[in-house]
Design goal:
161 residues; single chain; mainly alpha
């Protein structure tokens, strides 16, 4: 039995970016966001003008907040919030690489340093102080809000009396 010779392109291919590691589902979802916005803004519109970093960071934050709040799909686009986050991150990355990214963040604060300094021990000590609550349904949240509303109404009524 003879040993197979390695393809000479293998060595070169191993030195290149491992594109196959990026999940295709994320790539496809973000491309659908780009396709939906292309008629309104133009394909690759961010390549034509400088890109303000804060605009895309704010968009990422809005989608992240909605996602954390339990909303999976952006109501305006019909696409998952994480697809919008990926699309925004892609625009930031490409704009930075093209040299057209405007870093308009305020002065750098200490938040990144604080996160770096937060050791796993300190993090877990903080986590132990938090009492996790199971997720509530929208009906449960509405019922609790109604109880609070009624309690506030009783207090207002008692103050008037």
């Amino acid at each position: 039995m003879t040993a197979k010779k390695a393809n000479p392109k293998d060595a070169l291919g191993l030195m290149k970016a491992p594109i196959g590691l990026y999940p295709n589902v994320a790539r496809i979802a973000a491309s659908l966001v780009f396709a939906q916005s292309a008629p309104e803004y133009g394909e690759f519109n961010w390549r034509n003008n400088p890109v303000r970093l804060s605009i895309y960071l704010d968009a990422i934050d809005r989608h992240n907040i909605a996602l954390r709040a339990g909303q999976d799909i952006d109501p305006k686009s019909g696409h998952p919030h994480e697809a919008h986050i990926n699309a925004c991150a892609a625009i930031i990355s490409e704009s930075r690489a093209l040299g057209i990214l405007i870093d308009d963040r305020f002065e750098k604060d200490l938040a990144a340093q604080m996160l770096d300094a937060l050791t796993p021990k300190a993090y877990h000590a903080t986590r132990r102080k938090v009492t996790p609550r199971p997720a509530r349904t929208l009906d449960q949240v509405r019922a609790e809000a109604e109880k609070v509303r009624k309690a506030l109404a009783r207090r207002r009524k008692a103050r008037r009396a």
